[in-house]
Design a protein that fits this description.
Layout: H1 3-42, H2 64-67, H3 71-95, E1 101-103, E2 108-110, H4 120-143, H5 145-148, H6 151-170, H7 179-185, H8 190-209
Helix pairs in contact: 1-6, 3-4, 3-6, 4-6, 4-7, 4-8, 6-8, 7-8
Length: 214
Protein backbone atom coordinates (compact mmCIF):
# COMPACT_ATOMS: atom_id res chain seq x y z
CA UNK A 1 0.00 0.00 0.00
CA UNK A 2 1.39 3.38 -1.00
CA UNK A 3 2.02 6.16 1.53
CA UNK A 4 -0.66 8.31 -0.12
CA UNK A 5 -3.20 5.51 0.28
CA UNK A 6 -2.26 5.09 3.94
CA UNK A 7 -2.71 8.81 4.55
CA UNK A 8 -6.08 8.76 2.79
CA UNK A 9 -7.33 5.84 4.91
CA UNK A 10 -6.05 7.49 8.09
CA UNK A 11 -7.87 10.71 7.16
CA UNK A 12 -11.11 8.83 6.46
CA UNK A 13 -10.79 6.99 9.77
CA UNK A 14 -10.32 10.31 11.61
CA UNK A 15 -13.38 11.76 9.86
CA UNK A 16 -15.48 8.76 10.92
CA UNK A 17 -14.26 9.12 14.51
CA UNK A 18 -15.20 12.82 14.50
CA UNK A 19 -18.65 12.05 13.08
CA UNK A 20 -19.22 9.31 15.64
CA UNK A 21 -18.13 11.67 18.42
CA UNK A 22 -20.63 14.29 17.27
CA UNK A 23 -23.47 11.78 17.10
CA UNK A 24 -22.52 10.41 20.52
CA UNK A 25 -22.87 13.93 21.89
CA UNK A 26 -26.29 14.29 20.29
CA UNK A 27 -27.34 10.94 21.75
CA UNK A 28 -26.22 11.95 25.26
CA UNK A 29 -28.10 15.24 25.13
CA UNK A 30 -31.25 13.60 23.73
CA UNK A 31 -31.05 10.92 26.42
CA UNK A 32 -30.80 13.55 29.17
CA UNK A 33 -33.76 15.45 27.74
CA UNK A 34 -35.86 12.28 27.47
CA UNK A 35 -35.03 11.23 31.04
CA UNK A 36 -35.99 14.70 32.27
CA UNK A 37 -39.29 14.63 30.38
CA UNK A 38 -40.13 11.13 31.63
CA UNK A 39 -39.41 12.05 35.25
CA UNK A 40 -41.34 15.30 34.97
CA UNK A 41 -44.36 13.90 33.12
CA UNK A 42 -44.67 10.42 34.61
CA UNK A 43 -43.00 10.70 38.00
CA UNK A 44 -44.51 11.96 41.26
CA UNK A 45 -45.09 15.40 39.76
CA UNK A 46 -47.62 13.95 37.34
CA UNK A 47 -50.01 12.69 39.99
CA UNK A 48 -53.06 14.62 38.93
CA UNK A 49 -54.76 16.71 41.57
CA UNK A 50 -52.15 15.99 44.24
CA UNK A 51 -50.31 19.18 45.03
CA UNK A 52 -48.13 17.32 47.52
CA UNK A 53 -46.71 15.38 44.58
CA UNK A 54 -44.71 18.48 43.73
CA UNK A 55 -43.27 18.82 47.20
CA UNK A 56 -40.03 16.89 47.15
CA UNK A 57 -36.45 17.85 46.43
CA UNK A 58 -33.86 16.53 44.00
CA UNK A 59 -30.40 17.93 44.76
CA UNK A 60 -32.07 20.87 46.48
CA UNK A 61 -34.45 21.56 43.58
CA UNK A 62 -38.15 21.40 44.23
CA UNK A 63 -40.17 20.44 41.13
CA UNK A 64 -42.79 22.92 42.32
CA UNK A 65 -40.42 25.60 41.04
CA UNK A 66 -41.09 24.35 37.50
CA UNK A 67 -44.84 24.39 37.86
CA UNK A 68 -45.41 28.14 37.72
CA UNK A 69 -42.92 28.89 34.98
CA UNK A 70 -44.33 30.54 31.84
CA UNK A 71 -43.16 29.11 28.56
CA UNK A 72 -42.95 32.25 26.41
CA UNK A 73 -40.65 34.23 28.76
CA UNK A 74 -38.53 31.09 29.18
CA UNK A 75 -38.17 30.79 25.39
CA UNK A 76 -37.49 34.51 25.19
CA UNK A 77 -34.64 34.12 27.66
CA UNK A 78 -33.22 31.25 25.61
CA UNK A 79 -33.33 33.36 22.44
CA UNK A 80 -31.66 36.22 24.31
CA UNK A 81 -28.88 33.84 25.38
CA UNK A 82 -28.31 32.77 21.77
CA UNK A 83 -28.22 36.42 20.66
CA UNK A 84 -25.77 37.22 23.48
CA UNK A 85 -23.46 34.44 22.28
CA UNK A 86 -23.37 35.81 18.73
CA UNK A 87 -23.13 39.44 19.85
CA UNK A 88 -20.19 38.45 22.04
CA UNK A 89 -18.36 37.39 18.90
CA UNK A 90 -19.28 40.58 17.06
CA UNK A 91 -18.38 42.89 19.96
CA UNK A 92 -15.00 41.23 20.53
CA UNK A 93 -14.19 41.44 16.82
CA UNK A 94 -15.08 45.12 16.67
CA UNK A 95 -13.04 45.89 19.79
CA UNK A 96 -10.02 44.24 18.18
CA UNK A 97 -10.43 46.31 15.03
CA UNK A 98 -12.03 43.90 12.57
CA UNK A 99 -15.24 44.26 10.60
CA UNK A 100 -17.24 41.98 12.92
CA UNK A 101 -20.85 41.51 11.85
CA UNK A 102 -23.83 39.21 12.10
CA UNK A 103 -25.05 37.44 8.95
CA UNK A 104 -28.83 37.34 9.35
CA UNK A 105 -29.28 35.03 6.38
CA UNK A 106 -27.03 32.41 7.98
CA UNK A 107 -27.72 33.15 11.63
CA UNK A 108 -24.03 33.32 12.60
CA UNK A 109 -21.41 35.95 13.46
CA UNK A 110 -18.31 36.63 11.39
CA UNK A 111 -15.10 38.39 12.37
CA UNK A 112 -14.98 40.01 8.95
CA UNK A 113 -12.10 41.90 7.34
CA UNK A 114 -9.05 42.23 9.55
CA UNK A 115 -9.31 38.78 11.12
CA UNK A 116 -6.19 37.70 9.25
CA UNK A 117 -4.22 40.43 11.04
CA UNK A 118 -5.10 39.25 14.54
CA UNK A 119 -2.68 37.29 16.69
CA UNK A 120 -3.50 33.73 17.71
CA UNK A 121 -4.50 34.90 21.18
CA UNK A 122 -6.84 37.51 19.70
CA UNK A 123 -8.39 34.94 17.38
CA UNK A 124 -8.91 32.60 20.34
CA UNK A 125 -10.56 35.44 22.26
CA UNK A 126 -12.92 36.03 19.34
CA UNK A 127 -13.94 32.37 19.22
CA UNK A 128 -14.36 32.14 23.00
CA UNK A 129 -16.20 35.46 23.33
CA UNK A 130 -19.63 33.86 22.87
CA UNK A 131 -19.18 31.62 25.91
CA UNK A 132 -17.71 34.52 27.90
CA UNK A 133 -20.60 36.84 27.05
CA UNK A 134 -23.24 34.26 28.00
CA UNK A 135 -21.52 33.54 31.30
CA UNK A 136 -21.04 37.21 32.23
CA UNK A 137 -24.61 38.22 31.37
CA UNK A 138 -26.03 35.13 33.06
CA UNK A 139 -24.00 35.90 36.17
CA UNK A 140 -25.27 39.48 36.28
CA UNK A 141 -28.91 38.44 35.79
CA UNK A 142 -28.56 35.83 38.53
CA UNK A 143 -26.81 38.23 40.92
CA UNK A 144 -29.53 40.88 40.76
CA UNK A 145 -32.38 39.94 43.17
CA UNK A 146 -35.09 41.46 40.97
CA UNK A 147 -34.12 39.33 37.95
CA UNK A 148 -32.66 36.25 39.64
CA UNK A 149 -35.79 34.07 39.53
CA UNK A 150 -37.53 35.48 36.47
CA UNK A 151 -38.56 33.10 33.70
CA UNK A 152 -36.37 35.14 31.33
CA UNK A 153 -33.28 34.56 33.49
CA UNK A 154 -34.03 30.87 33.97
CA UNK A 155 -34.46 30.47 30.20
CA UNK A 156 -31.25 32.41 29.56
CA UNK A 157 -29.19 30.35 31.99
CA UNK A 158 -30.68 27.03 30.87
CA UNK A 159 -29.86 27.73 27.21
CA UNK A 160 -26.36 28.97 28.09
CA UNK A 161 -25.76 25.79 30.07
CA UNK A 162 -27.05 23.59 27.24
CA UNK A 163 -25.00 25.49 24.68
CA UNK A 164 -21.75 25.00 26.58
CA UNK A 165 -22.42 21.32 27.23
CA UNK A 166 -23.44 20.78 23.60
CA UNK A 167 -20.19 22.25 22.30
CA UNK A 168 -18.19 20.26 24.83
CA UNK A 169 -19.93 17.00 23.89
CA UNK A 170 -19.98 17.42 20.10
CA UNK A 171 -17.19 19.94 19.40
CA UNK A 172 -19.91 22.11 17.90
CA UNK A 173 -20.83 19.33 15.45
CA UNK A 174 -18.99 21.30 12.75
CA UNK A 175 -15.28 20.60 12.44
CA UNK A 176 -14.74 23.41 9.92
CA UNK A 177 -15.99 26.37 11.90
CA UNK A 178 -16.93 25.47 15.48
CA UNK A 179 -15.75 27.69 18.32
CA UNK A 180 -14.18 24.77 20.16
CA UNK A 181 -12.22 23.58 17.12
CA UNK A 182 -10.90 27.07 16.49
CA UNK A 183 -9.94 27.52 20.14
CA UNK A 184 -7.96 24.27 19.86
CA UNK A 185 -6.32 25.55 16.69
CA UNK A 186 -5.06 28.70 18.40
CA UNK A 187 -3.61 27.02 21.46
CA UNK A 188 -6.52 26.79 23.91
CA UNK A 189 -8.56 23.79 25.05
CA UNK A 190 -11.91 24.52 23.40
CA UNK A 191 -13.70 21.56 24.95
CA UNK A 192 -12.59 22.56 28.46
CA UNK A 193 -13.70 26.16 27.89
CA UNK A 194 -17.11 25.09 26.57
CA UNK A 195 -17.54 22.60 29.42
CA UNK A 196 -16.60 25.24 32.00
CA UNK A 197 -19.14 27.61 30.49
CA UNK A 198 -21.82 24.91 30.61
CA UNK A 199 -21.08 24.01 34.23
CA UNK A 200 -20.94 27.63 35.44
CA UNK A 201 -24.18 28.49 33.67
CA UNK A 202 -25.67 25.29 35.11
CA UNK A 203 -24.94 26.68 38.57
CA UNK A 204 -26.60 29.95 37.56
CA UNK A 205 -29.62 28.00 36.28
CA UNK A 206 -29.80 26.13 39.59
CA UNK A 207 -29.83 29.37 41.58
CA UNK A 208 -32.27 31.12 39.23
CA UNK A 209 -34.65 28.15 39.48
CA UNK A 210 -34.50 27.34 43.17
CA UNK A 211 -36.10 30.17 45.10
CA UNK A 212 -34.81 28.82 48.38
CA UNK A 213 -31.28 29.85 47.35
CA UNK A 214 -31.79 33.58 48.03
Amino acid sequence: MTEAAKQYLAKKKLQRMEENSAWAGYAILIFIIIVGIVIFCFGPTAQAGEMDAWEFNICGINPADFRDRELLPFIGGAILSLATHELGHVASARLMGTDGHFAWSEGVAYAGDGYENLSNDQRALYHGAGFIAQTVVGGVLTAIPSTRHSDWTFGFNTFSMSNGLFYAATDGADKDSSDTENLDKYGYDGTAIALSSGVINGVFAYYSLNKSKE
